[in-house]
Amino acid sequence: MDNTPTSLFESYERDFNDITASIRKKLDANGSEGEGAVEGRKAALRRVEMELDEGDEMISQMEVEIQGMPQSIRSKYVARLKTGKAELSKLKKQAKDLSTQTMRAQLLPASLASAPSDDPYGTDQRTRLLSGTDRLADGQMRLEESHRVALETEDVGADILRNLRGQREQIEHARETLHQADSSIDKAAGTLKTMIRRMYQQRWTTAAIIAVLVILIVVILYFKLR
Predict the structure, then answer these.
(1) Rounded to the nearest 10 degrees, what angle do helices 122-225 and 38-67 cross at?
(2) Which SUPFAM superfamilies does this chain map to (predicted)?
């Protein structure tokens, strides 16, 4: 198993490249406006939206992996991440344009079929319908983007909570270690006090023995000289 700091990033990058290739293939295959292709295009767009969400997830994972890389190699992978983000943004724009075209193709034929051919307001009606379709598509994209941001915010909040929980466990472990160290210090201090007390007792005993010997020597010398 590869445990290098960049292995997970490169794995996510490969998955991301596979996803973007699949999205690009679906968008290119459904780019033309053929008759009877609206329903197939809508199904393809739904699959594209799911893969775009997967691409966003891969980008988020790569951003997390970059934070753990050494500073000496981080800049190269940051550049690769920016390239991936730009590619994903381009695909999102293509998907948005195709979605707008699909909605137009779905709405316009029914509207134009119901309008008389000599209606002088047919062009205005078509313009208003196109404008409304564009606004609807923009609103849908903004809603999807808001949903994605909310999911990312939820993931970030969950990561923060996990980090805080881990830090709390580390603090509690450090506190227990400090308590154990404090207890060990108290025991060591008690042992030192006992040793010091015994040392003083030995000194007093030694001094008393020396004093007794000196007194005996003095007495012996006194009696001998007398």
Answers:
(1) 20
(2) SNARE fusion complex, t-snare proteins
Distance CA 183, CA 19 (A): 58
Question: How far, in Å, CA of 226 to CA of 224, rounded?
Answer: 5
Per the listing, tokens 């015994």 go with 198
Inter-residue contact 105 to 133 (CB < 8 Å): no
pLDDT tens-digit profile of 29-51? 876 555 446 677 778 888 889 99
Torsion over CA: 196, 197, 198, 199 (sign)? positive
Catalogue all structural domains in the chain, each as residue range(s) with its CATH number.
7-178 (1.20.58.400)
Cα–Cα dist 37/33, whole Å: 7
Q: Is 204 helix (H, G, I), strand (E, B) or coil?
A: helix
State the pTM of this model.
0.47
Please list, in sequence order, all residues whose beta carbon lies within 8 angstroms of the beta carbon of residue 18, skipping any fewer than 6 positions away.
Answer: none
Helix and strand counts by DSSP (H, E) for the chain = 4, 0
